[in-house]
Amino acid sequence: MSAATDTIYEALPPPHIPVDPAVLPPQLKLTETQQALYDEVLKHFIRDDYVLPGAENGALTEEEKFWLSAECLLRFIRAVKWASAQAAIKRIEETLKWRREFGLYDLITASYVEPEALTGKMMIWGYDTDNRPAIYLRPSRQNTDESLRQVHYVVWALERLTELMGPGVETLALMVDFADRAKNPSLGQSRMVLNILQTHYPERLGRALVVNVPFLVNAFFKLITPFIDPLTRPKLRFNPDCLKEGLFAPDQLIAEWGGAARVEYVHERYWDPLVRLCAERREKLWQKWRERGAKVGVREWDVKCAVELEDGKVEVAPAVETSKEPEAEQPSPAAA
Fold first, then answer.
1. Nearest CA to 298 among 308, 288, 307?
2. Nearest Cα residue to 259 out of 248, 274, 269
3. Is the sign of the CA dihedral 318, 319, 321, 326 positive or negative?
4. What is the mean pLDDT of the segment spanning 255-259?
5. Where does the pLDDT of residue 119 fall: very low under 50, low under 70, confident under 90, or very high at 90 and above?
6. For the chain, how long is the longest CA-to-CA vector?
7. Do 205 and 239 contact (CB within 8 A), yes or no?
8. DSSP code for 182
9. Nearest in space to 217 (alpha carbons), one of 307, 138, 149, 275
10. What torsion, rounded to 10 degrees, do the Cα atoms 287, 291, 293, 297 define?
11. Distance CA 120, CA 189 (A)
12. CA–CA separation, 301 and 305 (whole Å)
């Protein structure tokens, strides 16, 4: 095979994940107490008379109901450490308002953020060994002056990553390479992005890997570390050997990180296929969600398994003998 045919220019679709749709992933298996708390949160949002407090048009839109999956509710419940239903509801409603105000449903489109994407300073490509979609940040390729649109681009990419997560996958792999005299973002912008990630995308970071950290960048990380959530800090690793440590398969890791994938960012060949890949997958997810009632609390697990089965990609996992859990332990978050 020639070097030209070895070069990869497009993002990859989600990998095949052997699943049995009837066997729920661990994050959906709740104790009786956890189930009761989840049920209370769900009941709050499925009321016929529910309106978002303080919003001009408080009724939930179809997009918001789609976002409010069983897994979404549970991510926020875990973020408040199962403290109370009210604590989780408060966090969720704050994020619902933020998503409207920040422009997720109107302003932040592919065409709006595209000027930020021209040089490949941020690239979605490949999946780690836990099937998490990976996003590569290369600050040395910064092509625009600091602005709110840069933050909008981060949020746009986060939304696309969630669309590329397969059944049972809820987190992403963040890959940061400070090679080639990378320019640091300001402390203010870094704090803003960290606040968005921790406040509005809880339980979404699976691992954060950072390489080629020069002295100044190391000092910068020390400055922002106090603003990083204590639960997030252990996920942050510096200069890992991704292949030796089993974090990535060679064909899923780009060459700059020691992988076998020769990925070259050519905007004209990368951008439209990525936007199309995500749009097509989003449409399939919406279709399966609508088939399950188009309501708050539908499980992402059920929706994604249905998409995979329809695509003929699912390899059903072999049955495993397990002891039956007590009835109180049987999870039923958002059964349609």
1. 288
2. 248
3. positive
4. 96
5. very high
6. 63
7. no
8. P
9. 138
10. -60
11. 20
12. 6
3-state secondary structure of 42: helix
Contact between residue 178 and residue 218 where contact means Cβ atoms under 8 Å apart = no
| Residue 236 neighbours by CB under 8 Å, 6+ apart | 208, 210, 228
Q: Which of 103-107, 180-184, 264-268 has the lowest mean pLDDT?
A: 180-184
What phi, psi does 238 have (nearest 5°)?
-110, 135
Residue with structure tokens 């995308």?
201
- pLDDT at position 231: 66
pLDDT, mean over the chain: 88
The letter for the amino acid at 235 is K
CA-to-CA separations, 335 to 104, 209, 275, 297, in angstroms, rounded: 27, 36, 31, 8
Residues 192, 159 contacting (CB under 8 angstroms): no
Inter-CA distances, 1 with 63, 193, 262, 263, 274, Å? 45, 42, 13, 15, 25
- How far, in Å, are 30, 130, 182, 322 from residue 121 at the CA level? 40, 24, 10, 46
Give the position of tokens 């308002």: 97
Distances (CA, A) of 172 to 133, 166, 185, 272: 5, 11, 21, 22
Q: What's phi and psi for 123, nearest 5 deg?
A: -140, 125
Least reliable range by pLDDT among 65-74, 104-113, 250-259, 319-328: 319-328
Q: Which of 183, 159, 113, 172 is nearest to 279 (CA)?
A: 159
**Per-residue pLDDT tens digits for 227-248:** 566 666 678 888 999 999 999 9
Q: Where are the alpha helices (DSSP H) in the chain?
A: 3-6, 32-45, 62-67, 70-79, 85-102, 110-117, 148-163, 187-200, 215-224, 267-291, 300-311
pLDDT category at 328 given cuts 50, 70, 90 is: very low
State the pairing for strand pair 236-238/172-177: unpaired
Contacts (Cβ under 8 Å, ≥6 apart) of 162 = 204
